[in-house]
Amino acid sequence: MSAPAAARPPRSEDRAPGRAWATRSGRRRPTRREALVAFLHLAALWGFAVAQPLFDLLGRNAEFFATRGSEGLEIVGFGLVLALAPPVLLLALELLAGAAYPRLRRPVHLAFVGALAAVLAVQVLKRIGDLGAALPLVVATLGGGAAAVAYARARGLRTFLTALAPAPLVFLVLFLAASPVAKLVFASEASARAAGVTADAPVVFIVFDELPLTSLLDARGEIDARRYPSFAGLARNSSWFPNATGVHDRTSNAVPAVLTGRRPRPGSLPIAADHPRSVFTLLGGSYRMNVFEEATSVCPDDLCHQGSREGGLGRRTRSLASDLAVVFGHVALPVELGAKLPSVSEGWEGFAGDDPGGEGAEGEDGSEGEAGERREPGGAEVNDLARGLTRGLRGGRGGRFDRFVGALGSPNARRTLFFEHAFFPHAPFEHLPSGPRYLRDHRDAIEGLVPPSGTEPLRDRFAASQAYARHLLQVGYTDRLLGRVLERLHEQGLFDRSLIVVTSDHGAIFKAGEDRRAVTERTFADIASVPLLVKEPEQDEPRRLDAYVQTTDVVPTIADVLGVRLPWRLDGRSAFEPGAGRQGTVTMVQGAERRARISRGAGDRPVSVSTEALERGQRASLDRKLALFGERADPFSLGPRPQLRGRALADLAIARGPAPARAELDAAGELDAVDPASGFVPVQLTGRVRSAAPRKRPLAFAVNGRIAAVGESFFLGDDGIERLSALVPASAYRRGANEVDVLEIEGGGQRLGLRSLGRFGTRAGA
What we know:
Blueprint: H1 12-15, H2 17-23, H3 32-60, H4 63-66, H5 72-100, H6 105-128, H7 134-153, H8 155-163, H9 167-177, H10 182-185, E1 203-209, H11 229-235, E2 239-240, H12 251-260, H13 279-283, E3 288-292, H14 312-332, H15 335-338, H16 396-406, E4 416-425, H17 461-491, E5 499-504, H18 524-528, E6 532-535, E7 543-544, H19 554-562, E8 585-590, H20 592-599, E9 605-610, H21 611-629, E10 654-655, E11 661-665, E12 684-691, E13 698-703, E14 706-712, E15 722-727, E16 739-746, E17 753-761
Parallel strand pairs: 1-4, 1-5, 2-7, 3-4, 10-17
Antiparallel strand pairs: 2-6, 5-6, 8-9, 11-12, 12-15, 13-14, 13-16, 16-17
Helix pairs in contact: 3-5, 3-6, 3-9, 5-6, 5-9, 6-7, 11-17
């Protein structure tokens, strides 16, 4: 006879409610209520660990969506998927595990709880500071395990998570309605249009990115025709404004200012709704639009479809998902591991994409690419010139430039605006002037050699100077790109008849201790001074105009040359207008995010200097360039003991005994099969020096028995690692196997000597 219920010993489930939760339903299928509660808990944890950090970051950087041309419904759909789809997927996996083996469901659920708690813990630890990679991961893993145990045992914790379940939807609403993204979600279409355009000259308008004027100049202050023949060639048929300056040090504000003639307004996004009056709407009623915007979306949809908008929802979704994974890696991983990911500070999309857009890329052979359909003025059709131009798809930024060149019309092209915002010579610095690349995957082998703007700048003088040298190499490649445009225009019979405008959004500085793009009184001449060349139709004589014009004057100048009456008021005025550019001060705005790093201030800050100070700064900037690279401005000339370059090792005394230091080269295997025709040459040699007493030391690098480069070891940060990086001319290599010697330079003058720190290459390892 069984005992009465009141006398029956209590079951373990009754004695330990937490343990009961962990075991009770492990022997059966969960009820709908249990499944719903499990989903709510996963959703709450997902919301705090993943959704909220991403919503917060993307909400403050609406350009992430604007540059893709994302529409309001797409952004809403993205938010819903980010907030709800992953918890649904996790619950589905949990239920599938339980269906296969009922006792497995709860361990799977607890594993998900622990993993999400660990992700949240890493982010909390990052707020303390850079703790390396191992410590945050170990602490977060232990914390996640402890959280899973507490969750299983503490009913109050589960009740608390149930109460937090609405959090993902709250985060979503704040993201869509209370952040700058709301402008995109509830955007109104730009409708401002100009009328009465009678001109029919083609307009070719190119805005390069991060191109300071000083980089183009020779010792006389003229455009260097030897190093930059395309810029110099255009200047021979153009009006050149050597005192032109940009108006903002942030691309997403600077480029709209170029396109609208208006100074940036606080809080505005680089989209058509915030900039309804632009060069596109000025000419859009009469001109065709062949437009390639890189980091903005100012041209309205009814006038042109951008490259980043083409390819349909599927392409945009794939691009968004790929980039979002990289963004979240920076948010969720420890600082040391996040540094190994592609940078998300040098653009708004394509963070993980390859960019084979150098010599030999599609379209580089002069083919026209996909010209597509051209919209007749006033018609409903849109052009299709930029289809498929996204990072990671069909050629990256170099491939997009190929399409722009291919779009440059025919001899009958009239009333067409060809616009290109070219993301050159902007970092990553990867191209030689002749075209080949020397970076494999957009990242330096030594992270931090060219730190993103807004991060801690380089403190080592030699490292900063080498970043400058690499910038100059890419300026040479930029000149090559401009040359392809000019060649194409001549081939099509468009050069003489076209109005051609070439400028840049802002400049850059490569100096120890300075953020490369943050404008201050010290950096004004480097950041603000930009090239501005205007070739009028049929112009065949050069003119140098010393007016202090700004990039807000470009649109009024275009209107002036075309004889278009501006139907709205602008901040700029035509550079050709009598009396233009005679102000006594020049102003450029420092972006809020850079000001926060430099002075802990909030909001944008205007920085003003006198025109006399601007000219002194320009001269000082040029003198510094010449001091680093000589009158020939050769990027490979950087380094100590320049008299060693070109010397054969056989003619020098080299100590080869036991050395107190030894060198290590990254990717030394690339020396075994050099093929310049492949589009890649290992011009940059990076690595480290191991010694008992790390220090800065002068170094020489010999390729195949002859010294090809000199440099210095250096330190980045406080990790105590002695690093090395050298730029070796491509001409130093031979096809196939090569041998590199790394040597320390000892002594000086007549007592100069070398000590071997290591030999690398096929024969070195034989």
